[in-house]
Amino acid sequence: MRRLLLIEDDESLREILAMNLEDHGFEVDLASTGEEALAHYDGEIHDVVLTDLQLPGMHGLEVLRRILAKKKDALVLVLTAYGGAENALEAMREGAFHYVEKPVNTMALVHEIERALDHGSTHQPQTPPSEGVAEMIASSPAMNSVLKVVDRVASSSAPVMILGESGVGKELVAHAIHDRSRRANKPFIAVNCAAIPADLLESILFGYEKGAFTGASQRKDGKFIAADGGTLFLDEIGEMPVQLQSKLLRVLQDGLVERVGSVDPRPVDVRILTATHQNLAEKIEKKEFREDLYYRLHVVPLKVPSLRERREDIPVLMRHFVREFTRESGEHVEISSDVDGLFLEYDWPGNVRELRNMVERMILLRESDVLGREDVPEELQQRAENGHKDRTGAWYFELPEGGLDFNAFEKELIIRVLAKFGGNQSAAARYLNVPRHVLLYRVEKFGIEVDK
Description:
Helices cover 45% and strands 13% of the residues. It is built from 19 helices and 14 strands.
């Protein structure tokens, strides 16, 4: 049996986490302080250490340092409250394997533990996520499934094609693959093929020689050479001109890049990640995309769900963006249950990008430190209400042909009620007319994130 050391000063959370981890087959030793944990830590028997950062007495970072001093390849996961991303990244720089944000999603935590154990004795401290790249919020089963695929493919050099609607976070997924790969310390270069005029894209990707065209006064390397040893992310690959696709195919086949105007190819070691929201199969039929290139790039397809397919993430994302937009000012802004309800009703055609922009707009124009219905733009309120009317009975579920998934129905009901009461579990339990511990059990059972 795999054995963990859990360090958490909140007795209730400590017991719940221990119970859930034991249900997943782990043996768990408990400590409430860093001093107690260090007295009991044994590098020979503890496979993974889980530690809160904000502990009474000795801080979690010091606990991490002392555990790594005892065993330099110890696997340590840190638990951090929301807003603690800077401390979590500092912990990773100190040698922590990764971090899990509170409120803790049990399935996400187990996934991180399993990932740490997979590294085993060959584990090297991971590079923290690239600065300036937003976090991936993955409290929903749909996004946790995406992250599982990310972890499985990260260690290879196979091309990955990331699919999904505009705004779902395809570039974030590409960053996550790079940051978890052996190339993490090398460049990650992103190119939006739709944002660059077709006649410039070739020289930007492959570079050019002096005199190759009017204005080429000196030789210049392209993005392929800039990404040598690392990862090149080609966003909106479906917009790449067909004549340029053949040159990309040759690079994938031979690993050689020719600058425009050159006959001297240069070898490059670049992993290619691509993304598109288009149906490439239709473009192939129309002769707008090369079939042979498609199969070269489509080795691992990865579909990122739309926001309406992972509504559990909406309240968590909202609060994440609120913290992001108030970090510099240090202000504390809350979200009312009315706003939660409206945002859950809306279908978000622009996905996470639209949600982020809406939260930023509300933060800038708010009249108080509690975002209420009056802060939500009128057009969004109307669209949410119209969408609700159009989906008769969909506040919970439409009754499907062939039967109802009762677990899915119950989970959706709990998410909605928790949102109605702003995450207050006692109020939600009273509304549902169930004991609080029964609600807490179901929250853990379904892996529902509750903002505290």
